[in-house]
Predict the 3D structure of the following.
Amino acid sequence: MKRTIKTLAAAGVVAVIMGAGVVHFGVFNVGADEPHSDPVYALLSTARDRSIAVRSRDIKVPDLSEEALIREGAGNYNSMCIGCHLAPGLAGTELSKSLYPAPPNLSKLGVDGNPAAAFWIIKHGIKSTGMPAWGKSMADPYIWGMVAFLQQLPSLDAEQYTALAASSGGHQHGGGETKMHNHEGQHDGEKGVVAGHHDANAPEEVAEADDHHGEKNSAHAHDQAAELSEDESPEHAQPPGGEASNAAPAAPATPAAQPKTHTHDDGKDHTHAK
Ligand code: HEC
């Protein structure tokens, strides 16, 4: 008996040391371009599913069939989600292709049969995946609007999607949205995406008119920069700065403004873009 306890204790110590070694020597690759091993993936996705199931089981689902609610959800979805979750007629974006885990294509998946879980996920986000906690800036009724819309989404074609989003009058959150919202990377990303796929999503009409106009150009710059190789990425952070709002894509103006970084990159930008 004593011997068994001693053996178990020794095994425990060895396991802890090995675990510490794995961490210390950087054995685990946190790079998003290398998938998890099968056991790690299975562990993480089970933990995710159980966590969501337990936390969403008491959520009461309201009536999601109201047309006004669905329409409002369409506007919010189109403004904030398509960069990662796509839409009918939009097959992939830089974000959707580069994130790991990959954001599911919600134009096919919808609410995945569980509106309460979808609501919980949208409100609270999912750690270490890129899925934001939208409840930090959106009140519950607006989140339900997106759930209501997501229930319909798989049955919409590109034309119906665009018409519905356009008829929503853009997005309106309610709750804590402020300037932060306007300057979020996703918003730029989405604009960029949309700007690059004019016919697919008619974003210009859909997006609200005024407060984003300045960003349109920076979104372009952002997008183009994203297509460049890694060594360009530091400049990626630059465009949202002062000059970006209207001058970023104008090659002749920018090098003068930011000679250190932009001379070379903007040149490339433009070659790539058109
Ligand atoms: C920056 C990228 C990104 C944005 C923007 C984003 N999501 Fe996600 N979302 C993700 C990722 C990644 C996952 C998958 C997480 C995982 O694998 O656990 C996810 C998961 C989800 C899921 C769960 C899908 C399922 O059934 O497995 C829902 C629902 C969802 N997102 C809704 C939204 C909505 C609505 C918006 C816009 C308000 C949004 N997301 C914006 C990245 C994003």
